Amino acid sequence: MNPESIVQKQLIAYNSRDLDVFSSTFSADIVLYNFNEEQPILSGIDELKKVYKEIFDKSPKLNASLTSKMVLGNTVIYNEKVTGRINTVLDVIAIYEVKDNLIYRLTFIRK
Questions:
Q1: Of 50, 46, 45, 37, whose CA–CA distance to 107 is shortest?
Q2: Which is the most buried residue in 38, 48, 49, 104, by most CB within 10 A?
Q3: Residue 84 burial (10 A CB sphere; 0-12, 13-18, 19+)
Q4: How many other CB atoms sit within 10 Å of the CB of residue 32?
Q5: With the CA atoms of 21, 57, 47 and 101 taken in that order, what torsion angle do they form, in degrees rounded to the nearest 10?
């Protein structure tokens, strides 16, 4: 699979709240960051599963719609509009970095 397909698979699983498929798109040592912060907000597949299980369980109408995307090599950048989470709408830029057919780093820029 190419990086764009992997990230798209992740987005589809996110929107269907399918934790197994969603987590299968990430490497075991996945690290999530907020842009311009040195400390990760999440590290490792076990923590990712725990955090996203809670998000999926608490957000039955969760949906991320893709408003634009860019792809350069192994980096895929999505501008997403996220709805259905805690009665708020989030405008997010997600920078996905892919290696060995898995997302190994994800950085968020939030409005």
A1: 37
A2: 48
A3: middle
A4: 19
A5: 20
- 67-72: long-range pairs with CB below 8 Å, 24+: 69/4, 71/3, 71/4
DSSP 8-class letter at 31: E
Give 24: exposed, middle or buried? Use CB within 10 Å, 0-12, 13-18, 19+.
Answer: middle
**Digit-coded pLDDT (tens) for 70-111:** 999 999 999 999 999 877 888 999 999 999 999 999 999 987
What's the chain's Rg over C-alpha atoms?
Answer: 13
What pTM, to 2 d.p., does this model score? 0.94
Average pLDDT, stretch 52-62? 93
